Amino acid sequence: MSAELHLFVLWEKARFAERRILDDLRSQAKIEVVDAREMEFRGDPAESFTAFYGPRKPLDAALKVKKCGGGRFLVVVVRDLEPSYARRLAREGKYYTANERMYDLKEKYRKWAGRRHRVHGTTDTGEFARDVFLLTGRTAAEWERGVPGGIALNIPAKASWRTVVDTVGADLGLSDCRVVLEGKYINDVFFEGRFKGRDAMVKCSSKCAWSVGNEFRLAKRMFAESPGVVPEPLAEWTSEDGRMAFTVAERVAGPSLTDLLRRGVSDGEADRFAADILNLASALKRTGILHRDLFADNLLVGADGHLRAIDWQLSIDRADYREDPWVVRNWKFRYVVFGVNRELGLGVWNDFHALGKVLALLPQTEAVVKASERLAAEERGMTFAAPPDRATWLKLRLYALSLRLQMLVKGRRHRKYAQLERRLRTITGYCRD
Ligand SMILES: Nc1ncnc2c1ncn2[C@@H]1O[C@H](COP(=O)(O)OP(=O)(O)O)[C@@H](O)[C@H]1O
Ligand SMILES: [Mg+2]
After folding, report:
1. Minimum-distance ligand to the CA of 202?
2. 295 and 411 both lie in a single domain
3. Tens of pLDDT along 197-216?
């Protein structure tokens, strides 16, 4: 195996052992110290700890600050010249595959620094790529080429993305970016800015990076087919290691349909939206693209008063079904949490059905009723059921079995029987092979 980069973080309260740890690292035959730099939190340390550890495990950030310290810390980037991997025990009592040398060194330094959590270390290349980006705003690929210059002192994803949009983004044509939204579930941060003289929206993710590129590609196909139904996708960037990505789209003036419904929709607007929804539906049919997340939040009203569908991140091409690797790993997200068509069963999506639900929220003018009828007439043919992978299929089968047993034990009279039966129906519908 070729050499790989890793890092240690000695949080403030581990720094009394810093000299000893650095000396030890330098004396290791198979380790090269690439860079050691003092850094500090730019904003609130608790917030930064959440940004750093949060996505991986639930965190009591205040406690973390107390245990590790919120002052200056040391980041040491090292190169393991002969990496080897083995099964190691994780904190939660489970085994995982880790870089042995890094794992052992981390354990040793944690002993030296007293209390486990004062020292952080990476034990696989993916973890390094993510951490080094969050800490330095530079990608693993950039670090491979040498110690990058101009590293900002930061941790929060917001600050790291700031560096990326100010540098890579500027090369593409982005300017005047400001953060407008952050900490959403699968995206890190959203910027508003300008792209070659136009108002733009930038969406950044380090959790679901592939899906960001997916949004760009599929929205672009939609735009080519029917430019009125989707904001124009303008640019996309994915880091060389594929671990982070942003996409730039034309900014829609807004509001969202959700906001508008709160304010009240006039009959005239309802008629216009009914036509927009039919347009969108037919574009979806023609392209064979399935949005999968069509609801009032993801429909924005443009300056021209027409609806645009945003958020194509999890959309798919019927002919070439692909999911983001993160979504695949988090099977409950895919089959249970995510989706606006849960009533159709797990892993089953139908944009026409979803749009029908949106139409039902509007004033029922003649045009809206007609549009609903047209969608309903075609709905059956628009259903898409994801072919489950083997592991998920098995998990769902076991779940179905446990539901059957519960029904047997409880009996028909039990108040929960109907609920169990309903769940079983969705799952067995899904598990048909
Ligand atoms: N092209 C756009 N124009 C205007 N606002 C946008 C645009 N894209 C996203 N937004 C705003 O950002 C929010 C989140 O974007 P979205 O793509 O729906 O991501 P998420 O998957 O996190 O919901 C939207 O609800 C909307 O307020
Ligand atoms: Mg959304």
Report:
1. 1
2. no
3. 999 999 998 878 999 999 99
